[in-house]
Specification:
Layout (H helix, E strand, L loop, with lengths): L17 H13 L12 E5 L2 E4 L4 E4 L2 H4 L8 H13 L11 H13 L6 E6 L2 H16 L3 E5 L8 H5 L18 E4 L4 H4 L3 H15 L5 E6 L15 H12 L2 E5 L23 E4 L10 E6 H4 L15 H16 L2 H16 L2 H4 L3 E7 L2 E6 L9 H13 L2 E2 L1 E3 L5 E4 L7 H17 L2
Helix pairs in contact: 3-11, 4-11, 8-9, 12-15, 14-15
The structure holds ligand PLZ.
């Protein structure tokens, strides 16, 4: 792959540099503080796994804008496909007069989504909008109202999806009232609960039976690997048992693959690691190399339960974003980015897999593909250590490495690099993170 920016970290000013500081001053006068930022370093361009800021510093991106630029920043082929579409047709509104890229993307999604049954899709603008539409669809299909999500879930920031999102602070605080008929049920979090998959599933099912009632439930929404929740990977057998329970009680099983899907974890969808075929899947983020588009895909009978006109939206499945998504999916397949994500997993394991033995503040390193979490603890315990995360993020961003935070206790260092990241960049970035870990003692 050709990169327009050399794939190396290079600092030419302090971080943030003078131009970033000037932009930060302007920003504070123009942008609401509610849109808080992890690092006030303003980016000018990107290529592969490198971001270049307005002062000419080159930073290693370990976040991909929260799991979006999986195929690398500003991919030239995707840019060209989008530009070509933009010159041809930018908008009609699919539900007024349709166009091919929407149909083609729905066809492609049917091919890559698990399950050999007939499938249908709808296209929307954002992850939250996909989840919100999936809620409408499963309610329409089942005629039931209750929606379940898992503890530590993140499903979005609209009023409905915020209410399905676990963490009260800062996402939800003071922003109610929230809709009803939504329940959060216990997840399998092996590092915290020590339960096997079947044991954790029995706990979840018992909770549903004793608090809610299985026959009331329209849909169960799960992230097969939780992202914002702290790269929580439920134990083997957990989702298989929940899926069987859903089938027994007519509950639609929805895999929210918005963060973990589309090659990121070394499979098209992260639910594949759990050997479960979901009824519906939500996709967004990594599907279009940075363009905004999202989808709900799944069983034809469920998706078609909605009356014509029952779902829609002005920009949903925008032709330019759809063209970018089609090119992104083509590149992922052609260049075998699923194998590349597996390569990143091996490289990360080899480089940082022993941190729990080497650093007292590291409780566990876990991950799949290019999706890793480092659980930070108070030495000698499993208690969360948010101060350690703050210190690591401060050190990393000041030294040209951009990782992410995660976890209900703000104590998981989250790594979502591009699948094109080189071993050399992983080594360099890990070295910077290790300086911070060394300083923590
Ligand atoms: N479902 C699993 O990860 C978005 C949010 C960033 P949108 N996660 C990152 C932020 O601070 O808001 C996400 C997700 C899962 C749904 C969503 C929501 O997707 O495209 O951000 O609406």
């Amino acid at each position: 792959m050709d990169f327009s920016i050399p794939q190396e970290r290079k600092l030419v000013t302090d971080l943030p540099g003078p131009r970033s500081l000037a932009l930060q001053e302007r920003r504070e006068r123009a942008v609401s503080r509610g849109a808080g930022t992890l690092a006030s370093i303003y980016m000018e361009r990107g290529s592969g796994a490198i971001l270049e800021d307005v002062d000419g510093n080159r930073l290693i991106d370990l976040g991909c804008g929260i799991g979006v630029t999986t195929i690398g920043h500003a991919n030239a082929e995707v840019a060209e496909a989008a530009a070509e579409q933009a010159r041809k047709l930018t908008h009609t509104l699919f539900t007024v007069t349709p166009y091919e890229p929407y149909v083609r993307l729905a066809e492609r999604l049917a091919e890559i989504t698990p399950g050999d049954f007939e499938k249908r899709s709808i296209l929307v603008n954002s992850g939250a909008e996909a989840v919100e539409n999936a809620v409408k669809i499963v309610r329409r299909h089942t005629g039931r109202r209750v929606i379940l999500s898992l503890d530590h879930a993140f499903h979005g920031r609209t009023n409905l999806t915020m209410a399905m999102t676990y963490r009260p602070w800062p996402e939800r605080a003071g922003m109610g009232p929230f809709p009803g008929d939504l329940y959060s049920v216990p997840v399998s979090y092996p590092f915290k609960d020590g339960l096997s998959g079947p044991e954790a599933a029995a706990r979840t099912i018992d909770y549903i039976r004793t608090h809610i009632g299985a026959e009331e439930v329209a849909g169960l929404f799960v992230e097969p690997i939780q992202g914002d929740g702290g790269i929580v990977i439920p134990a083997e057998g957990y989702f298989a048992a929940l899926k069987a329970f859903c089938e027994e009680h007519g509950i639609v099983f929805v895999a929210d693959e918005i963060q973990a899907g589309i090659a990121r974890t070394g499979a098209w969808y992260s639910i594949e690691h759990h050997g479960v075929v979901p009824d519906l899947v939500t996709t967004a983020k990594g599907i279009a190399g940075g363009f905004p588009i999202a989808a709900v895909t799944g069983r034809a009978d469920i998706m078609d339960a909605v009356q014509p006109g029952g779902v829609g939206g002005t920009f949903g499945g925008n032709p330019v974003s759809a063209a970018a998504a089609l090119k992104t999916l083509e590149i992922i397949e052609r260049d075998d980015f699923i194998a590349e994500a597996q390569r990143v997993e091996r490289a990360l394991r080899a480089r940082i897999g022993d941190w729990a033995e080497r650093y007292p503040v590291v409780g566990e390193v876990r991950g799949k593909g290019a999706m890793f979490g480092v659980e930070l603890v108070r030495p000698g315990t499993r208690e969360p250590n948010p101060e350690a995360l703050t210190a690591i993020l401060r050190h990393a961003t000041a030294h040209g490495v951009i990782p992410l935070d995660a976890g209900s206790w703000d104590s998981v260092l989250r790594l979502l690099p591009s699948v094109v990241i080189s071993e050399a960049l992983i080594d360099d970035a890990a070295g910077v993170l290790e300086q911070a870990l060394d300083a923590l003692g």
